Amino acid sequence: MSSRGINKVILVGNLGQDPEIRYLPTGGSVATLSLATSDSWRDKQTGDTREKTEWHRVVIFGKLAEIAAEYLQKGAQVYIEGQLQTRKWQDNQGQDRYSTEVVVNVNGTMQMLGSRGDAKQVATQLAGHKPEQKPQLPQSTKTKKERESLPAAQPAALLEEEKMGWGDEIPF
């Protein structure tokens, strides 16, 4: 075991909204997901079943981001393996704010579970639950065709994926 510690997060949950994708100036892709996980238990006093839903902000980089944006939709069940990361940023009033996210990069995993029909059914169930709104980074306003014509510059994470032999293939 490493003396530096282990930072690994595994989640299985359902998307609360369609993935948001944006593109870095270098051409890399970044997808942001709102993932709901639920825990249920029986209340000892009343005997009623209780449920608590946690919302997780997931940020996916590289080809997995493109796959998530293309194939995932609100309600889809997904397996995520990544690392916790806390970002510091300033709001409009200049106050420091922090946002903890699960980051999925070249070392992480995103796997779609269930079927598209399941996603639509779960989306209906999630309609009453809204994730906490967090500030969004600026979104790209380029059309899909404009994004496809971006220069071929790639961030290190994308280059690392190609070294691993994924190329244009889906890594699962």
What is the CA-atom radius of gyration, in angstroms?
18 Å
Q: CATH topology, which one?
A: OB fold (Dihydrolipoamide Acetyltransferase, E2P)
Average the pLDDT over all residues and give the rounded result: 76
Unreliable spans are 118-172
- What's the structural domain tally? 1
Shape: globular
What is the overall number of helices? 4
How would you classify the helix and strand content by structural class? alpha+beta
Just give the CATH class: Mainly Beta
Write out the CATH superfamily name: Nucleic acid-binding proteins
For the terminal residues, how far apart are their CA atoms? Answer: 27 Å
> What is the subunit organization of this protein?
single chain
Characterize the biggest β-sheet.
5 strands, mixed, barrel
- Helix content estimate: 10-25%
Which strand order spans the largest sheet, edge to edge or round the barrel?
A: 1-3-4-6-5
Beta fraction: 35-45%
The CATH architecture is Beta Barrel
Strand count: 7
Question: Short description, anyone?
Answer:
This protein has four helices and seven strands; from the N terminus they run E-E-E-E-H-E-E-E-H-H-H.
Keywords:
alpha+beta, 172 residues, 7 strands, 4 helices, Single-stranded DNA-binding protein, disordered C terminus, 5-stranded mixed barrel
